[in-house]
Design a protein that fits this description.
single chain, alpha+beta, Alpha-Beta Plaits, 4-stranded antiparallel beta sheet, 28% helix
């Protein structure tokens, strides 16, 4: 499946959440990631994310799911901070 993940966590946890998300997805903008991921890897990512988050301080994680990237139109206006290139 293809997902877009957005997080909002306290300043003390931003670095750890960034590092965690980069293990599973492609960074595209501050606190925003995208990429193909399996159900198992997504469950793993969610579990580790929950361990880092502090809901009492308002931390949140939002995941948008799609069956495939081709079902999603993406338009970047301005600088594409991390263009994803496909290599064959």
């Amino acid at each position: 499946m293809y997902i877009i993940l957005v997080y909002d966590v306290g300043q003390k946890r931003v670095g750890k959440m960034l590092k965690l998300c980069r293990k599973y997805l492609n960074w595209i903008q501050n606190s925003v990631f995208e990429g193909e991921i399996t159900e198992v890897k997504l469950k793993e990512l969610k579990k580790y994310s929950e361990d880092l988050m502090n809901e009492q301080e308002g931390d949140s994680l939002i995941i948008f799911k799609s069956r495939d990237e081709k079902w999603l139109d993406k338009e970047v206006i301005g600088e594409d901070k991390n263009p994803i290139n496909s290599f064959l």
